Amino acid sequence: MNYFAGIDVGALSTEAVILDGKGELAGYSIVGTGANSTEAAEEALQKALVLVGRSYDEIKRTVATGYGRACVPFADKKITEISCHALGAHHLFPDTGTVIDIGGQDSKVIRVGEGGKVLDFTMNDKCAAGTGRFLEVMAAKLQVSLDKMGDLSLRAGGDVRISSVCTVFAESEVVSLVAQNHPKEEIIRALHRSIVNRVWSMVKTLGVHIAVTMSGGVAKNRAVVSFMEEKLGHSIHVHTEPQIVGALGAALLARK
Amino acid sequence: METITRSYPPARKDYLRQQKESHGRKLFGVFPAQYPREILWAMNVLPVEIWDPPLEVSHANAHLQPYICSVVKLGLELILQGKCGDLDAFLFPHTCDSIQNLASIVYDYLGLDKPCYFFYHPKAPYGSASRVYYMEQLKSLVSQLEKQLGLLDLSELNRRVAHGQRVATLIRELYELRTRGALSLSNVQFYKLIRYGEYLHPDDFIPLLERFLGESKAENRKRPAVILSGVLPNPPEILSLLDQFGVRVADDDLLGCRRRLLEPPGKAEDPFEILTEGYFNMPPCTTKDSPISERLDYLIEKIKLTGAKGVVFYMVKFCEPELFDVPQIVEELKKRGIATLVIDLELNQGLSGQLATRVEAFVEMIS
Amino acid sequence: MSLVRNLRYHFMKDLGSPALMRFSRATRKRRSRQPNPNFGPPLEASARLKEIMTRHYFLSRYAEGAKPVAWVSSGAPVELLRPFDFYTVYPENHGALCGAQKMGPELCSVAEEHGYHQDLCSYARIDLGHYFSRKTPAGKLPKPDLLFASNNICQTVVYWYKALAHYWQIPLILFDTPYNFEEINGIDIAYMVRQFEEMIPTLEKVSGRRFNYRKFQGIIRIAKEASNTWGEVLDTMKARPAPMTIFDAFGHLAPIVSLRGLPVALEYYRTLLGELKERVDRGMGAITNEHKRLMWDNIAIWYKMRDLSNLFAARGMNFVTATYTNAWAETIPYMAESRPFESMAKTYSLVILNNNLNHRLGLMERLIKEFQVDGLVIHSARSCKPYSVGQYDLRRLLMQRLGVPSVVIEADITDSRAYSEEQARIRMEAFFEAMGV
Question: What is the DSSP string of C250-265?
Fold first, then answer.
């Protein structure tokens, strides 16, 4: 049987997905990208192969995507993460009309058409607001562990708002809110609302087309998904492992 | 692939020096965008357009806020770094608020020792008053220039107006060949050639264009086509990326390029009338306040003629005239199934990985 | 125009709005604000101002379909519209109102979601945000039949109105004022006069009324007198202590901008002038301890007016003059009903923002001397390029020539997201130290 591989080299993490000849997901892996994208790509693929119990020569074709796709010398083709996320999300949830991908350093909203084709897209990659980095900075400021941020915010109520669009300004706002003795949970909740608002305006720019699928590391944050669902007025598809959507799309393209 | 020999003109600095020394021409630094170059040629002046000098902005930040576009910042930087020593004067067309105030900063506040000329062109919607005014502005510019340069010889003006038309005819031919897919120049080479018009004298530009036309015809270079819209093709790295993907820029709606391209002349004979007609017949442009419907009609016509699948809006950051039109133009194009990409750029910043990804994703969309 | 709507409009004008004014006066008496010790007693005329503007926006709800409606830019020669009985709306005034009500970011976001870049003028983004959402603190704005703009204040207003013209598919009339690089000459004036003549057929068509020259002259007379009176109002602030602050003046500006040419504006300024003269006679200052006198450059920071007013008043600093408020009085001497088109061409093309920076420097020097200004606060407004580009040099030159200390506040007119409280505070503290307060 032939196998197909998709590698998504992100700024922070690298994913590898392996599909079998029937196009079924055989296995995947996630590693930290670190300083060397090429090594990370090799490592991710190796790990996935081990998981699947196969060797590299059984891979018929490999497609690389993501920020570091140019650094994958063994890839047969390089395709942008926009096309890959669209196809990957469509494969997982065929009714996908919009993909919201919030990554560590950038976020994108993609309008998906028939067959998982990209109809339109918009990206935010110039500033930290609306990306995982925003939550990272704020978690550090509040001295809270990043993976607890989502749950903490869901515990809170309250009306606190962060008005700044800029991460640096927002940080100052957090400091003054803490000084005013607002409970941490409420501030974290406001921060989550803030990141969702930022991304939501990107969605509105493209026009809302359900069903919406969220991908990327930040989709693991239940609060972000929950607040986004509130904005949308509809439930949102999230795969059990939202980080692999890009690599999955790449693997599907490898198989085409 | 390139078996044809092409000799490009000398480097800009050397060329300008030559013009001064060998031809005794005065050099005028001209800011974007619309101005009657034929008048300057006729008075033995070489207009040197200042769009995107390759400089690091530092001095200009003491005079301009961060929310001012890089065309204006780079232009001011050029002056402040003392790199305009060879220029004999400046000409500021009234293009937008930022250039307007830049002109005043330079003239009123910097204490430069050079004459500054200003050219206010009428804005749309046009009436008959607009035409009369434009003609009078041309003549007024001439009288001002005469104080520095001596009297204008009308026969020389006629000659240079004809040259202006010749340049336009040649460039139009290049554009037409490109649209038909019959031009062997890459995107990068095409715009490099066109942009020579920013400082090459017609005596040199005309033979250059003729030579390129002679050598660049090709067969069946159709490939997927896009249209570029915006101010100028900077950074050129996007053009080379499109070349890499085999995507052809089939036409453009760029202020520095096609929007200033003269249409074939009408029946006027008086040179001032010809120039006036020329101004009003040029393609629609935001610096003239052309209505959005005119710009849409123009772009849609181009899309039909070229078979382009998409339009790339090459926006210089903070460029208000362009950014106000974009939403409605994009909306209309999307309705017609045309792919659009709007990119926000700082000049001379090359191509970041993120920008490249956007362009690549766009190419994937139209392929 | 519909007869029913016309009747309803007049009913509201003659009966509805007076009733509303009586009601609001009654409720206001029950809600009196705590007096602030830094300020003198509030101006009585302010109540009348509020009535006038509330009435204006109240009637806006009924104007659509009742009268021809024009949306007008703040520097446009509105006197030409009045004889045609256009109901005028000023989106910039509406934008300022939205800014003051802290609705700037919300409306701007709506425009941004529709593709308008966040670096564009925030008055325009608010207006476009209103177009898409119809949200407004002013009740309801009537849809325009015509857009009337002049680029004497900026080119952006034309790009903005062009976008509106396309959305609404209505005519845009532009009064194109050549920029004064060195002088406005005969050719420029002739161009502007011809433009006026060419506008009339469109105005007649849209309004359904014939142009009445006599009426037009009468309106110019009223506008001129109102602007002169406004100028006198501003002049009262030469007194020590000044009877009003520029922050108040930013509010009192509304009638001369948006109701110019109408008798109500003239009457209002006469009332205001009377009260201010009385205060000057009695030595009543706007702030209780006027130690330092300041000038403000650029449009207001609409969402920060009260805070800034308090901040400065608490330190005994009063803003006694501003280039912005001065703009509606400065060029009015050119206006002459005997040569209406020609004089309006001069009046409107020589306004501060259509004039070279040398002129601005001279103007600011004159104001500093006449109003005995000790310091200058420069609002570098992201939205307003013609006002803001050149400010850094102005600051330097004023320091050089007159030794006037100044501070630059980077902010925006209505988009509070562009304002950093922290940064502004640090700069102002340094300024206070320089001023010795």
Answer: HHHTHHHHHSTTSHHH
Burial of B303 (0-12, 13-18, 19+ CB in 10 A): buried
- Pairing of β C146-150 and β A13-19: unpaired
**Subunit contact B105:C357, Cβ cutoff 8 A:** yes
**CB–CB of B364 and A80 under 8 A?**
yes
- In angstroms, the Cα distances linking C423 to A134, A138, C408, C410 are 21, 20, 11, 8
Among candidate residues A78, B123, A110, the one with its CA nearest the CA of residue C172: B123
The pLDDT assigned to A49 comes to 95
Nearest Cβ partner of A172 from C115, C416, C422? C422
Residue B74 inside a domain? The answer is yes
The band of B3, judged by pLDDT with boundaries at 50, 70 and 90, is very low
Nearest to A201 among C109, C421, C422 (CB): C109
Q: How confident is the model at residue B309 (pLDDT cuts 50, 70, 90)?
A: very high
Report the range out of A215-219, C14-18, C67-71 with the highest average pLDDT. Answer: C67-71
At residue A169, the pLDDT reads 76
**Cα C71 versus chain centre, distance:** 14
Residue C385 to residue B344, Cβ atoms within 8 A: no
**Chain A contact for B360, CB < 8 A?**
yes
Judge whether B46 lies within some domain.
yes
Q: What is the CATH number of the domain that holds B46?
A: 3.40.50.11890
Q: What is the mean pLDDT of residues B317-327?
A: 97
B246-300 pLDDT, tens digit per residue, is 999 999 999 999 999 999 988 899 999 999 999 999 999 999 999 999 999 999 9
Chain A interface includes B269 (CB < 8 A)? no
The mean per-residue pLDDT over the stretch A208-217 comes to 94
Residue C342 to residue A41: CA distance in whole angstroms:
74
Is any Cβ of chain B less than 8 angstroms from the Cβ of A119?
Answer: yes
Contact A67 B334 (CB under 8 A): no
> Chains touching chain C at 3 or more Cβ pairs under 8 angstroms?
A, B
The residue segments making up the domain with residue B126 are 10-148
pLDDT of residue C21: 82
Domain count, chain B: 1
